[in-house]
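Input (Endonuclease/exonuclease/phosphatase domain-containing protein):
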Amino acid sequence: MYVMIRKILSPYVKIIDISYETLIWIRIAKELTGCESDYLIANLYIPPQNSSFYRIHNCDLFYELESQMIHYSAECPNIFVIGDLNARTANMNDYVQNDKLHDSILDRVGDLFTYVADEALSCRNNPDAGTNDYGTKLLNLCKSSGLRIINGRHPDGLSNDFTYSGPRGMSVIDYLLAKPINIEKVLKFITSNFTTYSDHAPIHVQFKTDFTMQCNDINSNLMDGEESQFFKWNKEFRDLCYNALLVNADDLSSTIANMDIASQDGMDLCI
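Output:
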């Protein structure tokens, strides 16, 4: 798994931990977010149950994620999880239903500790009616940690779609998780259209930040008073693009093999 960071953002975005090469934590500084505390984002890929990964690593990645979340939540409340979890959850609850205690019980325990009932959100619009063992683990993780599945719940309605298309059909296995209090920090969450280059649909997430990127005079080709131009992808050029990638496949493979990911300049050049 790779996390690519633009050089202009590198002072504010740091990789703080990598586990099993499938769980990467990044910290986005509060100077960039404009919030009182940083953002912590867990980028996660959980291999399928029959993957050879588990013959090498004897671990439960859902347990690892929960343990690390407990560790980091003590210093930062703004935790997000995004990635391919290979979990199918249908429309099952990701919160404890009817979690409120009766007033008579609250009166007895009120002096001992503060009880906060599990918060229920709106129903999820999930086009995938299937479930699996990983889905159960994900739902249990949500109930124990307070995270919620944002797929199918975001206000803009652009995340209510399948994320994976395979030989057995389509499903939702790529997720964005956040606590209810942090959902407003997710400005955009879009499940994009499938492409010919992957069986996963691209996921576009835009977080709330207090950052404006300015072009310097060296990289800008605009004359004074000239506005930037935006170009929309034309589907008619799809085959041309595909054929160009095939023709240059060896060059692309060589570039990837020789990526200098040890340096920021090398990463920026690849991007």
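Residues 106 and 112 are 10 Å apart (CA to CA).
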